[in-house]
Fold this sequence. Notes:
By secondary structure, chain A is α+β, with helices and mostly antiparallel strands. Chain A folds into three domains: about 10-40; about 40-125, Alpha-Beta Plaits, CATH 3.30.70; about 125-210, Alpha-Beta Plaits, CATH 3.30.70. Chain A contains eight helices and six strands. Chain B is about 55% helix and about 10% strand. The interface of A and B includes residues 34, 36 and 81 of A.
Amino acid sequence: MSESNVSRRDFLVRMAQGAALAGTGGLLWDHLLRQEARAHPYALRPPGALTENDFNAACIKCGQCVIDCPPLILKLAPAGGDLPIGTPYFEPRTGPCVMCPDIPCMKACPTGALSTELKRIEDARMGLAVIDIENCLSWKGLRCEICHRECPLKGKAITLETHPRQLSKHAMFVPLVHSDACTGCGICEKACPTEESAIRILPHKLVQGRIGEHYRLGWTFDTEITQEYKVAPDAAAPAAGKKEPAGGLDYLNTGDL
Amino acid sequence: MSTPETHPMPTGLWAWRYIILRRVSQFGILLLFFGSAHWGWHVAKDTPLLAGNLSASEFIGLIPLADPFAALQIFLTGHVLSQEVLIGAAIVLSIYLLIGGRMFCAWVCPVNVVTDAAGWLRNRLDIKPIFHLSRSLRYFVLVATLVITVITGLAAFEWVSPIGMAHREIIFGLGMGFTALLAIFLFDLLILKHGWCGHLCPLGAFYGLLGKTAQLRVRFDKNTCTHCGECAKVCPEPQVLNLKKLEERGLVYSGECSNCGRCTPICPEGSLMFDLKPLIRGHNAQADTIAVQRRTK
């Protein structure tokens, strides 16, 4: 074997070794990152947060939102926890968002992971309140309605509906959440008197369905008339001459009756 | 340590001056963040002294600061950087361009305290190396960080950085981040000498690339140096003390030097000392003439 062949072989082997090292290391790292970022889909973010993927990418993990939060409810996810490492979150049962009108956490964010496109705190969508009707006191027939009373957007985000109750003259007053107004602040979850809260904040994508484009709720809009009724041509202009005797059930249409 | 008769070694605290200053700087910066977060240190109402952490922060409510490496990664995830982060990163970048990028490593980074402790203990216990690893590996890790950032759309180093973990958890509440510090300590102590800071850390590599423009450098006086090698024994990056290059340039030129100042008090001849780069040429010329005079006398 000539010398140049050996060195070429050496070179190729070294290249392959380097590539293998970079490849295995890179794949491990890549895997670790994706695992970490998708660790837990339940993180509730401060108001104005971008969608989860964008938020994870843009958040620099500096904690300035945590410091500027007046009720100090925000935390940074520690290493080894369930949530994406170093990112801010809150737990409504112990510390709900109090919906400061000036949104100081969002203003503190240096990277725009909490987007300044949020102008009014009422437009924040941190999550959505979901009621477990099996364990809700109101649904059991008690006059509770604490979530409704505590809701900062009561009458819009949570309304009370009457619901008939079997064998009783008294109706139930049950809370109903409206996703078009609920900010996901979690004050209801904090206020719920049951041992485990019967109303909870969850990220929208975990609880909200979508009916799709193909359903037409005909009664919600006036249907356009697409064709006028026209008499069929042969009925309108019967062939001149002898009238054929009507056959079968068609005698009803002959006009003789 | 042998003390030559001609030049008395500095003794007591004075010999430890840079290590003391470095710890004061490292813990002081940590304390500023901690005090602002927990003890309500502020300059005016609702204006904390230094809010945030090493990734990004705001000083006295006016001056944004941001880790330029973190900002670069976020940019590579495909997000337009906000003005605040851009200004903050530019401020930090220009400071380090002026004083030397790796001064972050020796004077600010909290992990340095851990790796210094591991290095000191390793020397004490005289632990033999298991294997050698190229110190250039960190530049490959740096490139890998950027490539993986682009692929995953996540700031690759920020999600695994033991520096970030340690710093965040000291300021914002404890988690498992200290296990990363423990791992680094054991790795540096038992597996590879100066393993993390000297071989792997991509942030150190990033700052190392910024080192060339530094105006604060260690000056080298070739006339007094006796080639005793004491400096290289204490230096965590001994390749920067290559004598040939030192004599050529008259200063420690490599960006990998972290300006930690270990070599300056240890030098028995006082041949190594901090100096400002624009003055170094003049000072070296002066030293040369003195040496010539001494020889001709």
